[in-house]
Design goal:
It is a single chain. The chain is α/β, with parallel strands linked by helices. The strands form three sheets. The chain has a ten-stranded mixed sheet with strand order 8-3-4-9-7-6-5-12-13-14, sandwiched between helices. The chain has a two-stranded antiparallel sheet with strand order 1-2. A two-stranded antiparallel ribbon has the order 10-11. A hairpin with a 2-residue loop joins strand 10 and strand 11. The chain is elongated and about 135 Å long. The relative contact order is 0.04. Pfam families: Ion_trans, LSDAT_euk, TRPM2. Its main location: membrane.
């Protein structure tokens, strides 16, 4: 009935209070004194002394007289536990461990939930229960090495629990030392994966009274004595201790039954899609250990036996060898509960001989032979795996572990494939090396159905190496990734992830749109980040609404879908692999960069934000590297790659995606800048001097001379045949002609050609005069030059009107030139409206210079309206003056194209932010000093204007040295009459606190002139040094924006641009001719041409990846080479040193023998053989 009230305890009680533990967990206390005949009545058979038993236990003489054997279940009772909490080992200097005293009959589900939910121990992917010798039996050195190099390494890589005795004796101590050595050598991340759990009998623990506390110990101080020798003290290298109490004291084996139940319970829990495997590991062992093995084998728990480690392990290994040599006989009936097979008489005799050899001191050998027979080894031999430690390497231990568990899985699950279960375990442990060497070595023919579930587990649990392995060994991604599976992948997102939050936020809107629009999964994520890149941008909504017919269909672009799914979760390695597999490498990398940078703006945690930015930069670098390889391979194809529309990414181009992703490093590439320069100059040679353009601009007939060089028309490809990719290795084709792209008449011609039947396939030849005229005037550089010259003329006209021709209000004004100025500004307004119509208003507002244009035009309109009325004439003139400054500042944007001025403009923009911070600090000091100075000098002054000037304006002038000493000393004409002061007279200054005013002035000048000004200089220096390094990159990005702007502009500059606007209005709204330039820098290729371009790009990407892999291999081989050279040089140096030492000794002996100091009784020793020869060579 007391199982105890576990289900009645709520989850909140579990975490908020720890008083529930004694109500659920029990201990056992001996309640019947059964006298031990060997102790003369001083001890009970439980091991406790008579004094420790209560009066009820020692008073039942009649019951004790008829009891001959003490039994825990009959002679002990359960009471609330009095030992639990945290354990601190005195002097150990490590983190605290958890401990719990519990009854041997405690349900294992309670203990497992306590450990995982309350203690915070991570759920295991594997449990290895190490059993073996206890007490003072010495563990062999190779067994220690197996534990250290094999078991702990396997536990770390699989996330396993190691369950051992937990005491500082025998195998338990060796396990603790192995965990300790691993923790000292491994990183903090790997330390958390090795969990050592000690299961020991409570009555055997030394100093257990230090753990007793009915309220729990947080922590309990535990002192370990004689740590250098084996003892029954708790080992401080374990993370948790389960102290099993069966009521006995000083007896071993009381924890065996509970430990077996715990192992069986954990084996039925799940970790992912598979049950948690449990493996028992036998090291040595006494005769009583055979019962422990039998108990676990009956519950189908697999065993790994270390052959040669000790008596019990060696006996089982020899019996397994005998089973393979001796035939089975069914003459004798098997014992109850066993199978039909039984050992033959010959096998029984051999078993008796082996038991006698391994356990010579055992009294009842026949009983032990029957126990060995009862082990059912002949029935459960497939549950036992033998590890030959002296022959096998400890590095192979994890492979042996895996195979042992697979054998057990195959025995339990008869319909499951052996290799499929082994693969699931390898995926759960993330051991791709084992899977690669054992399962995918070419001996097994994997079917698609065998890899599906493991592929899903690898994707969800972020194991990219397995994803790569499955894809290389028979998994077809086109068949695997259906929309239903992709839905499952998105459902596996963590509730705390940013992507999950964004999807939930847009769920309602998507559901409302899903009823009328079709779907494609991967485009949802891009639309979340305000840049919808898919032509099927709304199709994903059906995925969120319920059952749909298309769910069983394969995803159209599987690798791109998986790439976005991985990028959303910031899974770097997996995203890079999916990028490698997806097509259109440059555009895909830029798309990943775009998504990650948008996510980083929404992420609030600093570490996650930094990780997103780093991965975004990584993808930008990948895009830059692939494009570099493409540009080196073929210039023309790399240009086509930049402006090619992508069906996968919503007909976006690389230039559009790079602009959206703010990929400044990508824009700084020489190949992209070469394309921009070619677009900028049109059909003119890029080496044309600027003065020639200006001269031709004012003298148009010079176009038809040789003053300006134009590219040959024959080398330009027509827009109808933009790409020649018949051969991937052929000679580069010249870049397509930009005349047709920029020619408005070409748009009209193309539109008409589509509608007319029988139209020719290419543009008709134009006369030379008209062709050369278009080649000059329709180039973006000519449009830019015209706008610059006309803008200077506009500013000159504005200045002349403002200074010399600003007439009074009507009817006397405005003047004719002022009306011309109004018309000029009107054409500027028309151009701004055209730009807004070309792009979305939201994108238009984001540009800083567009904001400047709106401000200038708004101020001009306000000034123009105000100057028309006499009462607001002066205000209108002032507004016009301010507006002239705004129009003049607009010149900065025009000169951003300059190679020297452009980077400096960027530096000035960055420094403006520093100025704002400086002004903030300056304003604080100005107000502090200004108010104090005004209050000390003037006791009363009711004039608000003068107060404002003295509080802010005068302290500001103090910074530049303008200090009115005469006002502080009171040497001016003034009055103290309040009436006169209110009438406007100058109030007298107070001389009472002149000394304080001077002190405040000194402090103010010290702070502002020295501290703040030098702070501003330091900020400027830091900004300059920081931005100067990357200013060229920023300038090239701004250059693209400027080129794109003037490429889309009409060729005429204001005010003549009105003619181009009228022309466009007639074509767009009257003749209904669509615009091609609304999407500038766009090349639409389909079919075979697109396929060949994608293949060529994929080849360049493979070259990059191959070069990277080669560099990595060279690094590894060079490291190994250096190591081998050092190992070869060391013995050589030793030999040289020894030879030189012996040679020097021989020289000294020869010198002494020839002197008179020593009279030798015999000749000195001589060198023989090779040594003599080397000595002669050395002397020479």
């Amino acid at each position: 009935d007391q199982i105890y009230i576990y289900k009645k305890v709520t989850l909140n009680q579990l975490f908020l209070s720890q008083s529930w533990i004694p109500n659920i967990i029990r201990k056992r206390v001996c309640t019947t004194f059964v006298e031990d005949s060997l102790s003369n009545g001083a001890l009970c058979q439980c091991g406790g002394m008579r004094e420790t038993h209560g009066s009820n236990a020692t008073g039942d003489y009649f019951g004790a007289a008829i009891v001959s054997q003490w039994d825990s279940s009959q002679h002990s009772s359960e009471y609330p536990t009095d030992a639990f909490g945290e354990l601190e080992f005195a002097g150990a200097g490590r983190r605290q461990s958890h401990f719990l005293r519990l009854s041997c009959d405690t349900p294992p589900q309670i203990v497992y939930s306590l450990m995982t939910a309350h203690w915070g121990v991570p759920s295991p992917n594997l449990v290895v229960s190490v059993v073996g010798s206890g007490g003072c039996e010495k563990v062999k050195p190779w067994v220690r090495e197996v534990l250290r190099q094999g078991l702990v390494k396997a536990a770390q890589s699989t996330g396993a629990w190691i369950v051992a005795g937990g005491l500082r004796e025998g195998v338990g101590r060796c396990v603790g030392e192995a965990v300790r050595d691993h923790a000292a050598a491994a990183s903090c991340l790997s330390q958390k994966k090795v969990i050592a759990v000690g299961v020991a009998p409570w009555g055997l623990v030394h100093n257990r009274e230090q753990l007793v506390n009915t309220q729990g110990s947080f922590p309990a101080r535990y002192y370990v004595q004689n740590a250098s020798r084996d003892s029954c003290c708790l080992d401080n290298n374990y993370q948790a201790f389960l102290l099993v109490d069966d009521g006995s004291v000083g007896r071993r084996g009381g924890e065996t039954a509970f430990r077996s139940m715990m192992e069986d319970y954990i084996s039925h829990q799940h970790s992912g899609s598979i049950e948690i495997p449990v493996l028992c590991m036998l090291i040595s062992g006494e005769a009583a250990m055979l019962k422990r093995v039998d108990l676990s084998l009956r519950k189908a728990t697999p065993w790994l036996v270390l052959n040669g480690s000790g008596p019990a392990a060696d006996l089982i290994c020899e019996l397994l060898d005998a089973l393979s040599a001796v035939p089975m006989s069914c003459t004798s009936p098997p014992p109850e509960g066993e199978g039909s097979e039984s050992p033959s008489a010959e096998l029984r005799e051999r078993t008796r001989e082996r038991v006698k050899r391994h356990f010579p001191a055992e009294a009842d050998r026949e009983k032990l032979v029957d126990r060995v027979r009862a082990l059912s080894i002949y029935q459960n031999r497939d549950l036992i795996t033998v590890f030959h430690g002296e022959q096998d390497s400890p590095d192979d231990f994890d492979t042996v572990l895996l195979k042992a568990l697979v054998r057990a899985s195959k025995r339990v699950s008869s319909d499951a494939s052996e290799y499929t279960e082994e693969l699931k375990l390898a995926v759960a442990w993330n051991r791709v090396d084992i899977a690669n060497s054992e399962l995918f070595n070419g001996d097994i023919q994997w079917r698609y159905e065998d890899l599906e579930d493991s592929m899903t587990d690898a994707l969800i649990n972020n194991k990219p190496q397995f994803v790569r392995l499955f894809n290389e060994n028979g998994l077809n991604i086109l068949d695997y990734l259906t929309y239903q599976r992709l839905e499952g992948l998105y459902r596996s997102l963590s509730n705390s992830s940013l992507a999950y939050t964004l999807l939930q936020r847009h769920l309602t809107e998507r559901q409302s749109l899903a009823r009328s629009l079709p779907t494609a999964v991967f485009t949802l994520t891009l639309s979340v980040f305000m840049y919808c890149l898919s032509p099927l941008s709304q199709q994903v909504n059906k995925l969120l609404l319920g059952d749909c017919l298309y769910r069983e269909q394969g995803c159209v672009h599987p690798w791109a879908s998986l790439f976005i799914w991985a990028v959303l979760q910031n899974r770097s390695e997996m995203a890079v692999y999916f990028w490698e597999m997806a097509g259109e490498s440059v555009l895909s990398a830029l798309a990943g960069c775009k998504i990650l940078r948008e996510l980083s703006k929404l992420e609030s945690e600093t570490a996650a934000k930094l990780s997103l930015k780093e991965l975004a930069q990584k993808f930008e670098n990948l895009a830059n590297e692939v494009f570099s390889e493409c540009y080196q391979s073929s210039e023309s194809r790399s240009f086509n790659l930049l402006i090619r529309q992508s069906l996968v990414w919503g007909e976006a181009t690389c230039l559009e995606m790079a602009t959206a992703a703010d990929a400044r490093l990508f824009f700084s590439h020489d190949g992209l800048q070469s394309l921009l320069s070619q677009i900028w100059w049109g059909d003119m040679e890029r080496s044309t001097e600027v003065w020639k353009l200006i001269l031709t601009f004012f003298l148009p007939p010079l176009i038809y001379t040789n003053l300006i060089s134009f590219r040959l028309v024959a080398t330009c490809l027509s827009i109808s045949n933009p790409l020649n990719t018949d051969s991937l290795d052929g000679v580069d084709a010249t870049m397509f002609s930009l005349t047709d792209m920029m020619d408005e008449d070409a748009e009209e011609y193309a539109a008409v050609r589509v509608n007319l039947k029988g139209a020719p396939s290419s543009n008709p030849k134009r006369p030379f005069v008209l062709l050369r005229w278009r080649e000059f005037w329709f180039a973006p550089v000519t449009a830019f030059l015209g706008n610059v010259l006309m803008y200077f003329l506009f500013l000159s006209l504005f200045a002349y009107v403002l200074l010399l021709d600003f007439k009074p209000p009507p009817p006397h004004g405005p003047s004719t030139l002022e009306f011309v100025l109004y018309f000029w500004v009107f054409t500027l307004v028309c151009e701004e409206f055209r730009q807004v119509g070309r792009i979305r208003m939201k994108l238009y507002i984001q540009d800083m210079w567009n904001k400047c244009d709106i401000t200038a035009i708004s101020l001009f309109a306000l000034g123009m309206c105000c100057r028309m009325f006499p009462w607001s004439y002066e205000f209108g003139r002032a507004v016009m003056a301010v507006d002239y400054m705004v129009f003049t500042l607009r010149l900065i944007h025009i000169f951003a194209i300059h190679k020297q001025l452009g980077p400096k403009i960027i530096i000035v923009e960055k420094m403006m932010k520093d100025v704002f911070f400086f002004l903030f600090f300056l304003a604080v000091w100005l107000m502090a000093y200004g108010v104090a100075n005004q209050a000390l000098l003037y006791s009363y002054d009711p004039r608000p204007g003068w107060i404002f000037r003295r509080v802010f304006y005068r302290p500001y002038l103090h910074i530049f040295g303008h200090i009115p000493i005469h006002e502080m000393d009171g040497g001016i004409e003034c009055t103290n009459n309040v009436t006169l002061i209110e009438a406007g007279a100058e109030p007298c200054t107070s001389t009472y606190a002149n000394w304080l005013v001077v002190i405040l002035l000194v402090i103010f000048l010290l702070v502002t002139n020295i501290l703040l000004v030098n702070l501003l200089i330091a900020m400027f220096s830091y900004t300059f040094s920081k931005v100067q390094e990357h200013s060229d990159t920023h300038w090239k990005f701004q250059r693209y924006n400027l080129i794109a702007e003037y490429h889309s502009r009409p060729c005429l500059a204001p005010p003549f641009i009105i003619l181009s606007h009228l022309h466009l209005f007639i074509k767009r709204h009257i003749r209904r001719i669509p615009s091609v330039k609304i999407k500038h820098f766009v090349l639409d290729i389909r079919g075979r041409q697109a396929s060949r371009l994608n293949t060529w790009e994929a080849i360049q990407k493979e070259n990059i990846l191959s070069a990277q892999n080669k560099r990595e291999r060279e690094k590894d081989s060079e490291r190994l080479k250096r190591t081998s050279v050092k190992s070869d040089i060391a013995p050589s140096l030793t030999l040289v040193h020894l030879f030189m030492s012996s040679t020097k000794c021989q020289i000294h002996l020869t010198a002494l023998s020839q002197s008179n100091l020593i009279k030798p009784t015999r000749p000195p020793p001589t060198l023989r053989g090779k040594v003599a020869y080397r000595y002669v060579i050395y002397m020479k």
